[in-house]
Write a structure and sequence with these properties.
The structure is a single chain. With about 700 residues, this protein is mainly alpha-helical. The protein has two domains: about 325 residues, ABC transporter involved in vitamin B12 uptake, BtuC (Orthogonal Bundle), CATH 1.10.3470.10; about 325 residues, ABC transporter involved in vitamin B12 uptake, BtuC (Orthogonal Bundle), CATH 1.10.3470.10. It contains 29 helices and no strands. The protein starts with a helix and ends with a helix.
Length: about 700
């Protein structure tokens, strides 16, 4: 009787849950079908819905049928396949890492695949599409394994995103370096890297479909084990689930899905992040959707809808001829950046990455010795920068040039090389000082103008000005860079201030804003003429090429102002870096002091970007190294950090000009190669 009495109460709830899951699936299937139909009717050719219908029925003109069968249907099919693969991959990665921000983008899977394919392209080896997907799979898998090893299951969102962002920056810099070094072999690789579902025929879709199906089938087979992992590692082991083996299997299968998508359409960003986020609220309405076996296919449908929706929206908003040039990945990147910012405002604060405390305070002698060594290094790298390059000089040549007795060739080399050395030194010092100010004000050792999106905003302003104004002067470019940096800083610091500049919100909002600026810069590069595109790419690589003495005047003025502010108000920096209450107890207004330092930091970053392009990690590495060498008092940290930043960027510039001379690599690419291992080591050292 008890069972009979409770059955009516249980059965309707079960039916309702199953009905809800079926209803959600049906709605998504209908939505994806509608988007696919609309996508097929859009294009540059005057082939509308009526002609498409006739072509599908075999009654249209051969020309119309060729457009539909060879271009539009493969494009829609690629959108379905890529979106579904990335959506399922994102859901799987989030499940095994127990982190709502895990995705092929944040785990550097796409960057690893892109780098692997870039290496393959440079070697000149021509492989079939299926074999190329294997290369992409290995690259993506290696990147994901590295990020997860640094973070670990259940790691804080900040650690996971920072490890992925740092590795993405490093791998992307290496790939961009390959593009600049081998422009003929890598022709079209940059535009492909933005992600486009346009296809020429069904060959690619047909070859990648079995790979995606195999990855999805494997994930469905491990679905029950994945659900057990959600209970915690100990509970899963108690149920007989091999935790480590399951986690490795899921990461491998998710990387396989991502590799199939990257090989077919390039790295289309943030679909693996947004699709699970859209499905997640529905799991509260329908219990079956909480199970991986149901949730993964539904998330795949959501991912397909996102990719097709982005393509449909793009072609509906802009002209058809223009829409062809804009990659689908740019649109999804902008949407994903907004998603990341919104999620950053809602995600629960987790343990951040704290810098290990130094057990002793170095004395005055250690400080003096450190400064002396850094000054010697600065002199050495400056001399090397002046003498070395595609044409090597001697100190006597420099002496003759200073006295006006040098030949025409030597004069030309020095007239072009000295401003480059000066720009590298000043930009490095400015970025180091900017990072020092931001880390002190926010009390966040991971705060950095690049990671927080300020450098990206400055680059967006500068690239926008450079690509639209034919005669761009140094002060004009610096003004445009400052406007872009100020706008992004206002967004990042404004949103983070509501939570007291906590680790999670500050870093995640910064990463989201940085992703948005990257997407907008990519849009500008794709739409501009080839000359400006090359100039913009060189700028983004952090190159000092073509710099003149007037180009260094804005950053010189900003650095002088920044040093005065930092030295005069060094006591305020020390107080702000302690906590929120101590400054108030001593009569300091934290809000006003914080505003002064942040405005100074934005000015330093903007002028540094205007002088030497986008250079990453300097604002993070230099303050960390300075505090490790001389303690935490800013009267010592500021000069040491400035010297380290100048030496680091100048060294990167010299290496970029000499290692593969006469070809050159930008200083930004070199600092990314140097800074990425350091940053990942820092994360590993502070792992808890």
């Amino acid at each position: 009787m008890a069972v009979t009495a409770t059955s009516p109460a249980i059965r309707p709830h079960t039916v309702t849950s199953r009905t809800g899951a079926a209803a959600v699936t049906a709605v998504l299937v209908l939505l994806v079908a509608i988007l696919a139909v609309v996508d097929i009717t859009q294009g540059t050719a005057s082939v509308g819905p009526a002609e498409v219908a006739k072509a599908l029925l075999g009654r249209s003109d051969p020309a119309d049928a060729s457009v539909v069968i060879a271009s539009r249907l493969p494009r829609a099919a690629a959108g379905l396949l890529v979106g579904a693969a990335l959506g399922v991959a994102g859901a799987a990665l989030q499940a095994v890492s127990r982190n709502v921000l895990a995705a092929p983008d944040t785990l550097a899977v796409n960057a690893g695949s892109w780098f692997a394919l870039g290496l393959l392209t440079v070697t000149g080896v021509s492989l079939p599409l299926l074999a190329s997907s294997g290369v992409a799979f290995l690259g993506g898998l290696a990147a994901a394994a590295a990020v997860l090893a640094l973070g670990g299951p259940g790691a804080g969102t900040v650690r996971l995103v920072l490890a992925g962002s740092a590795l993405t920056l490093g791998l992307s810099s290496l790939t961009e370096g390959l593009i600049l070094l081998f422009p003929q072999r890598t022709n079209g690789l940059y535009q492909w890297s933005q992600g486009s579902i346009s296809q020429n025929g069904f060959d690619g879709v047909v070859q990648m479909a079995p790979v995606a199906v195999a990855g999805l089938a494997g994930l469905l087979l491990t679905a029950r084990r994945v659900d057990a992992l959600a209970l915690g590692d100990d509970a899963a082991r108690g149920l007989g689930v091999p935790v480590r083996g399951t986690r490795i299997t899921v990461v491998v299968l998710a990387s396989l899905l991502s590799a199939a998508a990257v090989t077919l359409a390039g790295p289309i960003g943030f679909v693996g992040l947004c699709a699970p986020a859209l499905v997640r609220p529905l799991t509260r309405m329908s219990r079956p959707l909480a199970r991986s076996r149901v949730r993964m296919p539904v998330t795949g449908l959501a991912g397909a809808g996102l990719v097709l929706g982005a393509d449909v929206l793009l072609r509906a908003v802009v002209k058809a001829q223009l829409a062809v040039a804009v990659p689908t990945g740019v649109v999804t990147g902008l949407v994903g950046a907004v998603f990341l910012v919104v999620m950053a405002l809602r995600v629960r604060e987790t343990a951040g990455v704290s810098e290990p405390e130094r057990p002793r305070i170095p004395g005055r002698t250690a400080f003096v010795v450190t400064v002396a060594v850094l000054v010697a290094a600065l002199v050495a790298v400056t001399v090397a920068g002046v003498l070395l390059g595609d044409s090597e000089l001697l100190l006597g040549d420099v002496a003759n040039w200073a006295q006006g007795r040098a030949g025409q060739t030597v004069s030309f080399v020095l007239d072009t090389r000295l401003p480059r050395v000066l720009a590298a030194l000043l930009a490095g010092a400015a970025l180091a000082l900017s990072g020092t100010l931001v880390q002190a004000v926010t009390r966040n050792p991971l705060a950095d103008p690049g990671i927080l999106g300020v450098s990206g905003g400055a680059a967006l302003g500068a690239v926008l000005f450079v690509t639209t104004v034919s005669a761009a002067g140094a002060w004009s470019v610096a003004g445009a860079a400052f406007a872009g940096a100020a706008a992004t800083a206002l967004v990042v610091f404004g949103l983070a201030a509501r939570g007291g500049f906590r680790h999670t919100r500050l870093v995640l909002v910064g990463v989201g804003v940085s992703a948005a600026t990257t997407a907008l810069i990519s849009l500008l590069i794709v739409l501009t003429d080839p000359f400006n595109a090359t100039k913009a790419l060189t700028w983004l690589s952090g190159s000092t090429y073509g710099r003149t003495v007037p180009d260094t005047l804005p950053v010189t003025a900003a650095l002088a102002l920044g040093l005065v502010v930092a030295v005069v108000r060094r006591a305020e920096l020390d107080l702000l870096s302690v906590d929120e209450d101590t400054p108030r107890l001593l009569g300091l207004r934290p809000a006003r002091a914080r505003l002064v330092f942040l405005v100074t930091s934005v000015l330093l970053t903007a002028t540094a970007v205007a002088a030497a392009g986008t250079i990453g990690f300097v604002g993070l590495v230099a303050p960390h190294a300075a505090r490790a060498l001389v303690g935490r008092r800013h009267v010592r940290v500021v000069p040491v950090a400035v010297l380290i930043g100048a030496v680091l960027v100048c060294t990167a510039d010299v290496l970029g000009r000499t290692v593969i001379a006469p070809a050159q690599l930008g200083a930004g690419l070199m600092t990314a190669v140097i800074g990425t291992p350091y940053f990942l080591w820092l994360l590993l050292r502070t792992r808890r």
